[in-house]
Specification:
CATH superfamily: Vaccinia Virus protein VP39
Number of strands: 7
Distance between the termini: 28 Å
CATH class: Alpha Beta
Order of helices and strands: HEHEHEHEHEHEE
Shape: globular
CATH topology: Rossmann fold
Radius of gyration: 15 Å
Strand content: 25-35%
């Protein structure tokens, strides 16, 4: 995650006064740290990743950044197995940085998880410039194009594509 994308995430979390955030794709914790910095002091980040070692790295990174252990809930597992167990309309922001082949499913789950006025944010919307390249593209880029179209055409969303990092696709749930 680029510093600019991280700053945008922090701002977005603060803008919605986020108390509950779900993150798909823990990684090494960089995006989680930015989200936690933007969230309310009593906010909790729920982060899902299929790789337990990623979550261990993130746990250490959060601690090193000064966050108390009760500020993050780590759930190991595949996002599409875990997300259905999370509360309907229980989240202020959902950040998606997981398997690009599953982005349309992440969107559907995010809409269920978000309260009205909440935000869904997808990292990597530009796919290193490939989403606008007219040549043949791999399936993951085709899925991103479908996601961009679905978000743009949804009457339930107010979308914006932020040109930071590799692109943050953001959408406010009406």
């Amino acid at each position: 995650m680029s510093p600019g994308a991280g700053a945008a995430l922090r701002l977005l979390a603060a803008t919605v006064d986020a108390k509950a955030v779900a993150e798909i794709g823990t990684g090494c914790g960089v995006s989680g740290i930015h989200l936690l910095h933007g969230m309310r002091p009593d906010g909790v980040l729920t982060t899902v990743d299929p790789e337990p070692e990623h979550q261990q790295f993130a746990r250490q990174a959060f601690r090193a950044a000064g966050f108390a252990s009760n500020r993050a809930r780590f759930i190991p597992g595949r996002a599409l197995d875990v997300l259905p167990r999370l509360a309907d309309a229980g989240y202020d922001l959902v950040f998606c940085d997981g398997d690009r082949l599953e982005v349309l499913d992440y969107l559907a789950e995010s809409l269920r998880l978000l309260r009205p006025g909440g935000l869904v944010v997808f990292e990597g919307a530009f796919a290193n410039g490939r989403t606008i390249d007219s040549g043949p593209q791999p399936t993951e880029v085709l899925r991103l194009r479908e996601l961009l179209r679905a978000v743009r055409e949804s009457p339930d969303l107010v979308p914006s594509l932020l040109p930071v990092g590799d692109g943050l696709l953001c959408a406010l749930k009406r």
